[in-house]
Amino acid sequence: MINHISRAARPGFSPGLRRLSDLRASEHVPESPASPRLTEQASLYVHWPYCLRRCTYCNFNKYIPKENNDDVMTKCLQTEAETLLQLSQVSCVTSVFFGGGTPSLAPPSTIAKILETVSKQANLSDEAEVTLEVNPTPVAMSKLKDYRHAGVSRFSIGVQSLQDEDLRSLGRDHSALEALQTLGEARRLCPGGVSVDIMFGRPGQTTESWRRELSEMLRVCDDHVSLYQLTLERGTGLFKQVHCGQVTMPSEEMTAEMYQCARETLQQHGFQQYEVSNFAKNNSESRHNVSYWKGEQYIGVGPGAHGRFVPLGEGGVAREARTQTLEPDVWIREVQQRGHGTRRRIRLGHLELLEEVLVMGMRMTKGINHKHWEGFSPELSLHEIFGASPVVQELLHSGHLILDDRGLRCSWDGLALLDSILPVLLVEMDKQIFPKAAS
Amino acid sequence: MSKFPVDKIRNFCIIAHIDHGKSTLADRLLEMTGAIAKTEKNRQVLDKLQVERERGITVKAQTASLFYSHDGQEYLLNLIDTPGHVDFSYEVSRSLSACQGVLLIVDANQGIQAQTVANFYLAFEAQLTIIPVINKIDLKNADPEQVESQIEKTFDIPREECVRISAKLGTNVETVLRAVVERIPPPAGSVGDPFKALVFDSNFDHYRGVVANIAVFGGQVKKGDKIVSAYLCKTYEVNELGLLRPEEHPTQKLFAGQVGYIVAGMKDVKEAQIGDTLYHHEQPVEALPGFTPAKPMVFAGMYPVDQSEYPALRSAIERLTLNDSSVTVQRDSSLALGAGWRLGFLGLLHMEVFNQRLEQEYNASVVVTAPTVPFKAVLSSAKLIKGRRAVQKNMVYIDDQRVMMKYLFPLNEIVVDFYDVLKSMSSGYASFDYENAGYQAADLRKMDILLNGQPVEELTTIVHRDRAYSSGKAMCERLKESIPRQMFEIAIQAAIGSKVIARETIKAYRKNVLAKCYGGDITRKMKLLKKQAEGKKKMRRIGNVDVPKDAFISVLKRKDK
Prior knowledge:
The structure holds two protein chains of two kinds.
Chain A: H1 2-8, H2 15-25, H3 36-40, E1 41-48, H4 70-88, E2 92-100, H5 108-121, E3 123-134, H6 138-150, E4 154-160, H7 164-169, H8 176-189, E5 194-200, H9 207-220, E6 224-229, H10 237-243, H11 252-268, E7 272-275, E8 278-280, H12 287-293, E9 298-301, E10 306-309, E11 320-324, H13 328-338, E12 342-347, H14 350-361, E13 368-369, H15 370-376, H16 382-386, H17 390-397, E14 401-403, E15 407-410, H18 412-416, H19 418-433, H20 435-438
Parallel strand pairs in A: 1-2, 1-9, 2-3, 3-4, 4-5, 5-6
Antiparallel strand pairs in A: 6-8, 7-8, 10-11, 11-12, 13-15, 14-15
Chain B: E1 9-16, H1 22-32, H2 50-55, E2 63-70, E3 73-81, H3 89-96, E4 101-107, H4 114-125, E5 129-135, H5 144-155, E6 163-164, H6 173-183, E7 196-205, E8 209-218, E9 220-222, E10 226-229, E11 234-237, E12 240-244, E13 248-251, E14 253-255, E15 259-263, E16 277-280, E17 298-304, H7 310-322, E18 328-334, E19 338-345, H8 348-362, E20 366-369, E21 391-397, E22 403-408, H9 411-414, H10 418-425, E23 444-451, E24 454-455, E25 461-464, H11 468-482, E26 490-496, E27 499-506, H12 522-537, E28 540-542, E29 545-547, H13 549-556
Parallel strand pairs in B: 1-3, 1-4, 4-5, 5-6
Antiparallel strand pairs in B: 2-3, 7-8, 7-16, 8-15, 9-14, 10-11, 10-16, 12-13, 12-15, 17-19, 17-20, 18-19, 21-22, 23-24, 23-25, 23-26, 26-27, 28-29
Helix pairs in contact in B: 3-4, 7-8, 11-13
């Protein structure tokens, strides 16, 4: 109770101060995956599965509810959060992220209740980043203030596009103007703590129109931008439309150009690209997402949520990859019956964990530094694993990869081709870590 | 049961063009003589192989002994069913050697077709009695009169000798049996002669060893007898023998004139050479004229999909060729695909059936590379005589509606899809038969395939000069489809000497990175990346290009129809 009020009572704290404390917290001391430091804390992901409509491109775990299930869902999210936090035995939750579905459909009280549950189980600092994904409709906009009061410190606005026709054909239920209005309100409530999501590679888009749209966006957005290439996923409405020839996607050439253009433009406007799709200025990087890319523990709560943590509460010693049951109704029953709806748990072996650390870490522009890697692989350094390989040498020579005394990372060019580079690195790592098996 | 005077025995075959009704007639004969019960289910009982049932064709000739009463006398009729397809004419000639007569079936609607003619000549050359049977008279478009004219004109057989039947309905089939008894002579040879038998087929049984199908030309043989193979001069003891009805019916003895099976401790099917003569070890006889081995016409490379499956495939091929000695087998290896074989077949269908049997009966997964015809390369001299397309040799009118044309073709031109195209262009009416006319010089070139300037040895081929461009282009296109994009451009070229004759380009990736990868995405992404990493391990690196094995396979394998 007190926690919740005190969070709400500090909406106007200085962004600068917050960033500083964040920086300190992110400097890691070498440690092993099951080392106390890593298992003492985790970030928390909460999934609100409901949506009002289906966007044509979306293949997330989302459902259009037939009746209002908010109360039951909220109660179950609280229960599962409590159970899993206890299972993980973390003493500190470093960040919370509300995703979905459409989390901005949930009542603000849901947010408050979940944060309260978390606070009871672990230390949730006042500085902890609490993000809420927002679908920028007028209704959502009117709730932003309450969300702030409930404890949200960062809004991620799903703008997607500033062209109304595109929004319509993507199946979105808001206009560009409404999105901009919501953005404005969010900035007012959380200055420096607002991110916008935009999409490129949309049907009918050209590099020119994209450039113009970006400029418009940059005039009004806050300190953080996530830009995503629209990808066709099987089973979505958009996939079917493209298949039937109703809709054509821009060529690969063009989308590659759009990506490069966006990177350059954002850089020119003072944004630092810190990950494949994420750009920040004024140190507004998403603490939560960075913790994914840095291989830190995270607990996933809600239907279809994913988690990675050591179940110390059960005597576990190794990190597990966990998935919660996908279907909300089934998940609800499971949570009610046994406290959580975990569908799958897979122990991550040493190599598997390293592979994840590699794949996630390379997405960041800073890549993986030696100290970070040592925490997960004390026996084999990055130089030892990758230094001698001829294929890696080729990548170093072609300028796509950099391996120096800071660590391993992609160059500007290499980052755009990361998925061509990663299989090469995985093969090398396999060879080095299991030399007999790999032959 | 096994004591039948030779004069009451008739050995005959049913021969015909494909689908004219041999197997249906065989069914009827079996039913009528009680070998199988009369039921609806007796559809082509003799076609035992799955592939035969699926394709509705006979691949392996099967044998059955039937009992028939005629004019108060018991007769033993030995029937041998044969394949109708052009590829399997070798099986036909083997079966004929054990018979004294044939039923030559002609479809009353289709009339004489290519295999009708081919089989007729086989029987004629073997000096067998030929009973023409006109089948499918129940069909609407049947024209038996016309067919009888054809038969008279083409084969010089008086129309009165034709028997009109419907094998499907059983109409007039009794007449066929009577004709067999009355017109086909009994086998020569008597029980008193020294034992002499012809091996006309064999099977391999895992428990008993080789089961040989024999036609007893003289004398008798019983269990426990010591017999000798003329070809190998090896002695064996008879473990088991009997009749085929069509299943095995063990008996104590087999007598002159009879057809049946024998199991004599032979471990390898090469010990029961087709065409071999068997005799009592104490009574050697003059060997029967053997068979010239069938000449393979079509070759294919067969490779396991992965080298780890080589032993399994080897064993499957060995077992399958035990029962099909017309397949020639040679070990071969390809730079791209590893160790494998070069198999020779009697024709495309033969190869397809073999392939299908490999997959169905032995669960083997095989890469089949395009058939190559045997080349004799003159290595010293580079000068070759100009090649020819087809040269017409002659043309004969069979009747007022049909013409038979003879051409000389380079084998390469017909070996892939000529038959198919001919069939479809002529709506199935045209039929086709071929024989080897020997080697002819032709204008051939060596074509290389290059990736970013590096030659890919495994894909070097020999092509006819006129085909070089289309072949090179096709290979480049297939490669383009099967080599994944990489971080730089890939130039695919087909070249003869230093001259590039075809080219395709694979563009470089400009962007290849997953847009979103958060906590919930990593599992799926890892799976995908691991799969790609596994794939990369199996790729061959040619210069700076990673080439998956599938690419080689897709270029080398036969085009799908």
